[in-house]
Specification:
Elements (H helix, E strand, L loop, with lengths): L12 H17 L9 H26 L5 H18 L2 H12 L11 E4 L1 H5 L2 H5 L2 H7 L3 E4 L3 E3 L10 E7 L6 H13 L3 E6 L3 E3 L3 H7 L3 H4 L4 E2 L3 H7 L14 E4 L4 E4 L6 E3 L5 H15 L5 E4 L17 H17 L4 E4 L5 H4 L10 E3 L1 H13 L3 H10 L7 E5 L12 H6 L4 H12 L11 E6 L4 E5 L2 H4 L2 H7 L2 H18 L5 E5 L49 H17 L9 E3 L7 E8 L2 E8 L5 E3 L1 H8 L3 E4 L5 E3 L4 E3 L4 E6 L1
Length: 660
Amino acid sequence: MIEPNESLQFTDLGFEAELSLKRILPRVLSVWSEEEVHDLDVQRFVRRLEQHWPTLFRHLFELYGRRYDFFYHLEEIARTAALSWKSRSAPLKKLDEQRIHEPDWFQSERVVGGALYVDLFSENLGKLREHIGYFKELGLTYLHLMPLFAVRPGDNDGGYAISNYRSIDPRLGTIDDLCLLADDLREAGISLVLDFVFNHTSDDHIWAKQAQSGNKEYQQFYYIFPDRTIPDQYERTLREIFPTVRRGNFTWQDGMEQWVWTTFNSFQWDLNYQNPSVFRSMLEEMLFIANTGVDILRLDAVAFIWKQMGTSCENLPQAHTIIRAYNELARIAAPGLVFKSEAIVHPDDVVKYIGADQCQISYNPTLMALLWESLATRETKLLFKSLTHRHQLPQRTSWVNYLRCHDDIGWTFDDQDAAEIGINGYDHRQFLNEFYTGQFANSFARGVPFQHNPQTGDMRISGTLASLAGLEQALLTGDRDLIELAIRRITLLQGIILSVGGIPLLYLGEEWGLLNDYDFVKDPAKAGDTRWVHRPRMKWEYLQELDDHHNGNGGSIRTRLFTTVKRMIAIRKDSAALSGQKMELISLRNPHVLAYVRMNDSARMVILANFSEEPQEISGNQIRTAGFGHFFQDVLDGSELNTSEGISLSPYQVRWLNRV
């Protein structure tokens, strides 16, 4: 006799997956029954569905197998994938086939990224199309548009409080404008990157509105509680993300007279992924976005998407299962699509989201933080320590290396790494906060505090690359020597992210050295969020300076910065050694210099980076043994070096050395 729930104790999930697909496949294929369709399209879909179904079934069963309605959702998820593939355009399907056979396309040395806010860069999507020539001139082949979907009025967390995933913010354009832009970018050889904000919706999303109206089906889309009993139990193990905005992780909703889980802001309602209807509904939104012509989806706030009492509700195993399931569905319905992880958490947790079966690429927040740490201390020991065991990734994956983004800088290094080289993590973070807000003696940085919590000492830093690297301070003093050092710091940092292994990403405006924009406080919707200080509006009049005649110092500061980074991008794209991720550190006796070798097949390049304002010299013999040669050329300045002599680096100099 079968006991209750015994039928759920499957011992052969492979057989159950096969049986389930056999049962639902006719109904899935019925989506093509009433119209003519190319047989090859159907065959390709079925082949991929059969290939990925066993793994997808296992993930979905792990998440929802004990639900009474599991089989219903299973069938609807498969139908959603079929409908999405059916409506996918011919050019995208052609690109899918190319990328199925070249799954590591994003590891090429020719992939160089840029990120921007559409309204701050070019007002709207239509005008952005007119600037594709600018991206090509700079050398970009990857373009990340910050959130551009419809958002709630007023404060919307910089676009991350989405009201409608199928509608563009009317100030920016329409879905048709987005599709036209995607087509033009594809023709120009530029991959389009958009955000998939799937941890939460805005409080004015249709699902949230239905919940507020009393619709119980949609109230189950969120975490809603009648009193503080359960929220208080959760709060015992949760951290506060924006402590200066509000305390706790739950918001009282007057209309419902209930508490709603809101990890980030009171107007961002966390979705309940324990409900398979949420998984399926967000799948529909994800595939809709994919079919607009997106190449890469940035998965926002991946660490927070599963909740469990008694835990931090961050980085739980089910979060990885959800991403893996979405990844399998992308392989079926949009196989050219790549996921990018945004996990600003402990370094050990960041890497857990990276894999061919999860997020193929990921932001590298630890590298960003430690580059700034090395710039402040003039020493590379913590950066070196971290890179020794935190840089390598699984095959067919890649870091996205960046210096600044739309977000703040959090000091996400590992305390154990720091302790092993004699650094107290807590004290060091306090020093870095003081240094980058300009409060430390002789600091060159002009950052602004973000989310300072006096009770814990936690703080993050806002500021543009140029202001943090000293250009703002130097320009205010008018000191030519300080200006020169600031320019050199900027070039040093860019020289590393363009060479260290992975996809380099510029936050557009960096190529001109744009400074902090303190006028953000004039906008009530932005005044409470200091991150707007490093989101300045693009100044297109700077392009006119490119036509100026260069003087002996290389022209204007902006022209010099632009032409330098443009040239480094061009050199990178012509350097086979910079493809992929493979990197080996060179251990030097000099604490101020970071040295590593990049390699790909037979190509090798040695990179040296001086983090000090003083000249440094290293052993030529070490370069000989690392680069396998006696004579090298610095491809950045054209100079030739002989390893029988010491190798010199001027203040903040970065060298890219090829064997000759």
